[in-house]
Write a structure and sequence with these properties.
Layout lengths: L5 H12 L3 H4 L9 H26 L9 H12 L4
Length: 84
């Protein structure tokens, strides 16, 4: 089984974001119950966080991000002088 990618997560997020219980509850009553709606809301928040994390990783990937020499020096200094 392959892993979800960023596009997959965005599609899932879009579907969760537009979920409306009144559109489906007459066909599937359980999908209109508070417990299910809360589950959709929880899943939406988790997927949104996953997308944000993916963007953060992409933006901070050392292979795709240029680090200014001053940033490199500051990061090295912080690593060498961090308090444990």
């Amino acid at each position: 089984m392959s892993e979800l990618n960023k596009n997959d997560l965005e599609v899932i997020c879009d579907v969760l974001n537009v979920y409306n219980p009144s559109d489906i509850s007459h066909v599937y009553p359980k999908m209109g119950e508070r417990q299910f709606i809360d589950g959709v809301s929880s899943a939406f928040k988790k997927v949104l966080e996953m997308i944000k994390e993916e963007k953060r990783r992409t933006l901070h990937d050392p292979k795709s991000y240029y680090w200014h020499p001053e940033e490199v020096a500051n990061r090295k200094w912080c690593e060498q002088n961090k308090v444990s």
